[in-house]
Amino acid sequence: MAHTYRTPRTGPKACGSPGEHTADPPCRERVHPRVAVPEWLLSGGNAVVVGRPRAPSDGPECLQNRPRRPGRTVRVSACRTAHAEPTSRERPVRSRGRIGTVREALDARRQHVMRGLGDHLSIGERIAFYRNRRGYTQEVLAGLVGHSTDWLAKVERGRRKPPRIDKLGELARVLRVPLGDLIGQPALLEDEKQQDDVPAVRDALMSPRRLSRLLFGPEADAQLPVPGPVVPVVEQRWNDYQTGHLGKVVAALPGLLQTAQELEDRGTRSQEERRDCWAVSARAHHLAATTLAKIGESDISWLAAERAMRAADESGDPLVLASAARSGTHALLANGRYDDAMELGETTAAWLASRIEEDDPAALSLLGMIHLRAAIAAARHQDRATATNLLGRAETLANRLGSDENYWQTSFGPTNVLLHKLSAELDLENVSYVVEHGDIDVDHMPPERGVSHRIDFARALTLAGKGDDAFNELRTAEGTSPQLVRNNPRVRETLRDLIKQAPVTGGARSSELFAMAQRCKAVQ
């Protein structure tokens, strides 16, 4: 039997995230004076309505949770719960054998919303949700981004393909939301091994001890780590990233970042170890920035990238700084700041070119990767001339290198240049080129690179109407690294399009395609 609590009448409020409520105007539901604490608030599952069972497909939708007649216990509204403030006199509630409080229930609800509740929504549905939340009509929003009302209406209803990435960036700026909120943030989910510890990474980056070394510096006799033993630990986590084991990286990052701060403290005391201490810190923060960008935490990705660049500056090593600059381009791309990413890449390349030896393979690899990241930024900005020029520079360096190598975890070489060229052409909407040239061997590349290419290639095949080939690419990618595939927003969009293109059986719940769509949260 569900336990109940009383909630204050706080008046109507609008819903706050996609997946809760997509209707316009916002939910006007009034709070029933006596409501049941739903199971899904504490367990993440579906709520249970007292007196009537719910099918799993009902879900926590505001419009499905209207109050019943007085005197009957009803389920809590998802809309109301997301905003209700618990009273100071909280009553204990029980769910599946555990006792908690209403505040715990609300915290669980907020975390559930933040970590993928609206993953099943398409890009068009997300645009419609945030347009309604801002109070814009289709005519107004379309005019603000220079398109017709008919264009926007078809995008929102899924009757035409999603806008280009640069247009999505423009829509995000007008709607005043992060770009990731429109495309669907990747969400790292490692429930079985409890490795999804992004809050701990955030705490490590935002610790008040990071604000002032003078105020929070260690005591004179504090035992600080030395850089030597930390280096192989950081490099092992880099290997985990390249092999697609992102859960291991996230689980290790809080400790690595704490150690990096202690190395910085040691570097300020010892001139002999200064260079090595700051270099290791730069590598650890670079790993954090790249991983956080990959899993959709774009805001703290930028914070980690800034820390990596600062540590690299302190190290005085040109190659460390060039490597850290890559983390800056990753963070800027994740935040939709393509002009800034191009500027960082071009500035870094110009600075590095005069400080490296021409025959140094590590330097060639780093310089080549800087050109490739800047080329992707140019392509997403729809600047074909600049993208082509930067790809040409990278190709020249790859030819000088002569083979596919992995200095500084760059995976740089002729194959990686080709993969970036295909990715750029896809961003430039040259789908036919990607379909024609995308079937290349990537088995010898690190899994992170190979899976990223297969996801791009599958997207192009889907847009070209080659659904079977696209699905085979996604299946192969998932077999290589499930973590990189199952929570990728481009994969979700591709699977939704494949379901639309498939025969009637393709969308059936028993089909292999639908099963994969469920695993990737493309459908409910």
Tell me what the structure shows:
One of its GO terms (cellular component) is cytosol. It comes from Streptomyces himastatinicus ATCC 53653. Pfam families: HTH_31 (PF13560). The chain has 524 residues and is mostly helical. The chain has three domains: 68 residues, 434 Repressor (Amino-terminal Domain), CATH 1.10.260; 236 residues, Serine Threonine Protein Phosphatase 5, Tetratricopeptide repeat, CATH 1.25.40; 90 residues, Serine Threonine Protein Phosphatase 5, Tetratricopeptide repeat, CATH 1.25.40. The chain is 59% helix and 3% strand. The chain has 25 helices and five strands. A three-stranded mixed beta sheet has the order 1-2-3, with no helix packed on it. Strands 4-5 form a two-stranded antiparallel ribbon. Helix 13 runs antiparallel to helix 14, helix 18 runs antiparallel to helix 19 and helix 22 packs antiparallel against helix 24. The longest helix is centred in the middle third of the chain and has 24 residues. It starts with a strand and ends in a 5-residue tail after the last helix.
DSSP helix count? Answer: 25
Instruction: Give me the CATH architecture of the largest domain, please.
Output: Alpha Horseshoe
Spatial separation of the terminal alpha carbons = 27 Å
Radius of gyration using CA atoms only? 25 Å
Keywords:
mainly alpha, 434 Repressor (Amino-terminal Domain), Serine Threonine Protein Phosphatase 5, Tetratricopeptide repeat, 3 domains, Lambda_DNA-bd_dom_sf, DNA binding, DNA-binding transcription factor activity, TransReg_Diox_bact_type, Cro/C1-type_HTH
